[in-house]
Amino acid sequence: MITQVQIVEWLQVFSSVIEHHKQELTELDAAIGDADHGINMDRGFKRVSSILPSIEGKDIGSILKTVSMTLISSVGGASGPLYGTWFLRGSDITMGKNQLTTRDILAFLKAGLDGVVERGKAQLGDKTMVDVIHPAVLAFEKAVTEDKDTISALRMAVDAAEQGLRHTIPMIAKKGRASYLGERSMGHQDPGGTSAYLMLRSLLEVVEGARKWK
Known about the structure:
Blueprint: E1 2-3, H1 4-20, H2 22-32, H3 37-55, H4 60-74, H5 79-94, E2 99-100, H6 102-120, H7 130-145, H8 150-167, H9 191-208
Antiparallel strand pairs: 1-2
Helix pairs in contact: 1-3, 1-9, 2-3, 2-9, 3-4, 4-5, 5-6, 6-7, 7-8, 7-9, 8-9
């Protein structure tokens, strides 16, 4: 189970994590993209963090919808539309809810993934955030079928996301600016996949109540 309070805390933690990893994300993007992923994500989530006090009393769906609109309006490049779509689809699933069961979380993750795929037109193996989120969703779904609790399911999802992220390194990019490099995009970790991993890992951190990881 995840509560509305934990959702707000997740967004706050993720904002801090993005700030902490801003330079890393920018350097990853400099190798195969526009060198602005960390800058754009930090700008967007600083804005999200600033509006959280005004929406923290609302239901989860309303919070996520506001986050979506904020990111779309404040994050440049592909990140704004993709993350905005992720949270918008999640808001549709969670509207009116103040807590989420493990199955609700699965529905949220699936809806977010579907939205990102539709918006970005990316598939597995294209060297994008889909290569991180897709295995995470499959792992979470497997955990649900095995009647795992929320923390166990998230741990499985994050482990799968981390493995998916490592798998982006040898891939040839087929979407976005990185695709222009062809084989030269090999050997570099995908920046969007990295921020997606950080997002899922931040959620696990909040649900576990841990504060050691950055």
